[in-house]
Design brief:
Number of strands: 6
Helix content: 40-55%
Distance between the termini: 57 Å
Low-confidence stretches: 1-7
Number of helices: 8
Strand content: 5-15%
Strand order of the largest sheet: 1-5-6-4
Mean pLDDT: 90
Structural class: alpha+beta
Length: about 220
Amino acid sequence: MATSLPPKDLVVFEPVKRSQCAECRQVPLDRLVLDDGAPRCLDCADLGHLVYLPRGDTALTRRAREGSSLSAVVVRFSKRRGRYERQGVLVEEVALARAEADCLADSEARARRRARDAVRRAAEDVRFTAAFTAEIRRLFPGCPPERAHAVASHASVRGSGRVGRSAAGRALDEGAVTAAVRASVRHDDTAYDALLMAGVPRYEARARVAATIEAVLAAWRGPG
């Protein structure tokens, strides 16, 4: 059960399959530690006194871990993503209580900071979408302005994982910008989505609509 976590982290697993402690024979195990490849319950691994803090509150997690002399990261394997993902942490109860008190004490200040950050990010997104739109219009002067803006807005949504948020997209790389436009044409100007819904394999559906996409792109590359 290898993970990408730093070596300094103690790792506790939430098993996908039914597991038994190799030492006390307890079964099933909600969480376990691998000791020389053998599963052990938290009590046998000397972690049973720790309390669980689920992920979600970054400040609380950071403070609880900093204040805990012993802590562990809890992970679970995601079949869909094919990797281990953090579920939370195990920390000392006194450290968690202290972290909760600290977070409560400065919650108002952190809320104001989050609000300021949200405003800043929104302004950055507006500027980036405008720049992405301008690059689409430069590469495809025949593309209607409202369509160029729609493509840029869709491609550059923060946290979406779309091409506009990739390193190439943020650099306004020509290939990335063209890929965003091509994707928009594929979905909005061809029968591609209908083909997928009809059960046509993706590679075959793409082949069927390729000529239509290239025709639209060629037209948009012409004089506006």
